[in-house]
Write a structure and sequence with these properties.
Order of helices and strands: HHEEEEHHHHHH
Structural class: mainly alpha
Strand content: 5-15%
Number of domains: 1
Oligomer: single chain
Distance between the termini: 51 Å
Helix content: 55-70%
Largest sheet: 2 strands, antiparallel
Length: 259
């Protein structure tokens, strides 16, 4: 005789009065949100690893404008990745709204924190007798707590401000002036990110004068904003395609910071 719980399960998953033909699984939500969030999170993790390398362009030249050193250009190995994270944040904010983007930011924050913890554990594990790269491994993946805090704080505040600024501008402009939303939000988010990171991490990354501090903040901010402007046509195209293929894209009747 069939047990009550077994009969109930059969009815729920196989339909009333007929047995279930296959195993039960939950449905995965369709759409492009999940892959964009995955790319967004991967970009953040990869950029934080690449950022441990110092990079200098035009090192044989010296050009200054007052306290601002224009050349040589000193930055980190993730200079081409951080702008991508903000571009993806813009795409998420424009198409899916602040609430969905905030959730992606939380995912990215958790992933970065998990990465740091895993690296710390791996560094402290005893190296095998045949492994000769322990110090190199520690140098590349090891970060000071100060840098970790600076990176997480800058990312978290910058991305939230970037998203909030974009959706607030969109509330006023609706579907017009996309360029203003993209550039305006990047200016706010990137400046906050760069300023917070450098303010916390200055000593740990070798910045010990106001001139170096201003140079790092201003050059970094200008570079990231310039990247947004350069790839604006691509961002436009991606956003247009997503709006076209997301069936739920439509005006809302609630506060844009709650959607």
């Amino acid at each position: 005789m069939m047990r009550v719980s077994e009969s109930k399960t059969t009815q729920e998953h196989g339909g009333p009065g007929r047995p279930a033909d296959h195993a039960a699984f939950a449905q995965v939500a369709r759409g492009y949100y999940a892959p964009i969030v995955a790319l967004f999170t991967a970009t953040l993790i990869i950029s934080n690893i690449c950022a441990t390398k110092g990079v200098e362009f035009l090192g044989d030249r010296s050009v200054s404008l007052g306290p601002l050193q224009v050349l040589p250009i000193a930055t980190d190995g993730a200079f081409f990745l951080f702008p991508l994270a903000y571009i993806l944040g813009d795409v998420l904010s424009e198409v899916y709204g602040f609430r969905a983007t905030r959730r992606a930011i939380y995912y990215g924050f958790a992933a970065l924190l998990l990465t740091v913890v895993c690296f710390a554990i791996a560094i402290r594990l005893p190296a095998a007798s045949f492994y000769d790269n322990q110090e190199a491994f520690r140098t590349v993946l090891g970060t000071t707590p100060r840098l970790v805090i600076a990176g997480l704080a800058g990312y978290f505040v910058g991305q939230l401000l970037n998203s909030a600024t974009l959706v607030l501008i969109k509330e006023r402009t609706k579907e017009k002036y996309l360029w203003a939303r993209l550039i305006g939000s990047t200016i706010v988010g990137e400046f906050a990110d760069t300023l917070i990171f450098c303010s916390i991490a200055a000593g740990a990354i070798g910045i010990d004068t106001w001139q170096q501090f201003l140079n790092y903040v201003i050059i970094g901010f200008l570079w990231k904003t310039l990247c947004e402007v350069i790839v604006l046509p691509i961002t436009y195209r991606v956003i247009a395609l997503l709006k076209k293929h997301e069936p739920s894209y439509a005006p809302t009747e609630v506060d844009p910071l709650r959607t």
